[in-house]
Amino acid sequence: MIHFPPLRTRRLTVQLRELSIAQSIAIAAMPPRLQEAECTAFLRAAVQSASGIEDPAAWTVQERMLAVCHYLAATAENGPDFEVGAAGRYSDYLDGANDILADQYEVGAAGGDDWNIRHLTGYMAESIERMSGEVQDAHGRSITGRLHWMLGAMSLQMLRAGESVPDENAPAGAFDEFLVERMRVISAFPESEFAALIGLFFSGREKLHHLFRIELSAEGVVAMPKGGAAANLPPARFPVRTCLTALALELGGKPDGGGG
Fold first, then answer.
1. Rounded distance, CA 52 to CA 34, Å?
2. What is the mean pLDDT of the chain?
């Protein structure tokens, strides 16, 4: 059995455990494009106990990233400060001195409304992932890639002051419907109003920063290097399949299912 020291943040105290081979094979068999769904399945299997917030789907994407990396730090062949890509290390991306200070922040006015911003959670990221291609642009083409992730994150993180929106307790179908409709509304904003809103979104994300400096790519959420000597490193992802053994990946039907 592998020993995992407790993981503690301001909001969470988590004890991880080693996955069983059956759990590892089940995760390895999941569609590789659904990396956020894989992350939730992995964490629900790997978390032995969690206080603060029990369900990993309700953790922020940064907290989820931290838990995956905590598992990797205990299992990686090259030690706790494991290699990331060709030239990076885990410590080049983890900003452990910064943790959550508030659940949401006021960010200002745009389009005649006052806006707040909240954290991007695993539940939200899974919905954005599921709904890729479900919203069309002005020419009827499906919105995918980085634009989809940007519009999805804005739609779920940016809240008008006082409005009521679905939360993690809502059925997935209802949450997905809300996301798609919200993305359609935001993508139909006049350009000047959209520019003002995305400006608030970017400034608000700075206020939300904790554990990892995240960015949105065509594939989803990535971690940026924290700066200093690591500033020129590329963005990194920490897919859960990097936590799985070659045996589990082979038995799960993905012999090439590594990550980086």
1. 26
2. 93
> How confident is the model over 247-258, as pLDDT tens digits?
999 998 754 444
Is pTM beyond 0.85? Reply is yes
pLDDT tens, residue by residue, 164-205:
888 878 888 999 999 999 999 999 999 999 999 999 999 999
Distance between CA atoms of residues 3 and 78, nearest Å: 16
Burial class of 101 by CB neighbour count within 10 A (0 to 12, 13 to 18, 19+):
exposed
Sign of the dihedral defined by the CA atoms of residues 202, 99, 58, 70, in that order: positive
Q: Given the structure tokens 């992802």, which residue do they identify?
A: 237
In angstroms, what is the C-alpha Rg of the chain? 19
H or E stretch at 176: helix 172-187
Distance (Å, rounded) from C-alpha 116 to C-alpha 103? 10
Cα–Cα distance measured from residue 248 to residue 259, given in angstroms and rounded to the nearest whole number: 14
Residue pair 238/72 in contact (Cβ under 8 Å)? The answer is: yes
